[in-house]
Amino acid sequence: MPVSLPNLPAPSGEPEPPSQLLRPCLDGCGRLTDHRRCPDCAGAWNAARDAARGTSSQRGYGTEWRTIRARILIRDGHRCHWCGRWAGTVDHVKAKADGGTDDDTNLVAACGPCNSSRGGTTAQLRRES
To answer: Residue of 7, 109, 110, 111 with fewest CB within 10 Å of its CB?
Structure first.
């Protein structure tokens, strides 16, 4: 059950912080937190997730990928291929899982929302939707 923190006087005359709702840690450790997990459980959860995923280099996104990514973003002027907004990621037109490559002709700049919403769809399917 959420618990409200009392508004404590702020140091040096600053406005009082808003009250925060505390709730039990998602992992059931018994601590109250204003996040999903308490700091200790969050750290352990993140470490386990990272160990299972491997490093970015182990997943194929090491130094070579970062160089390719920078080149594509510069080539496309940091503009999303799909919607024209500012782009900070690079998208595979044909997904690597479907046989796509890291060749420049298969890569386009993409904003975060377009890149994540595309999933495994092809460029043709994306343009039709």
So the answer is: 7
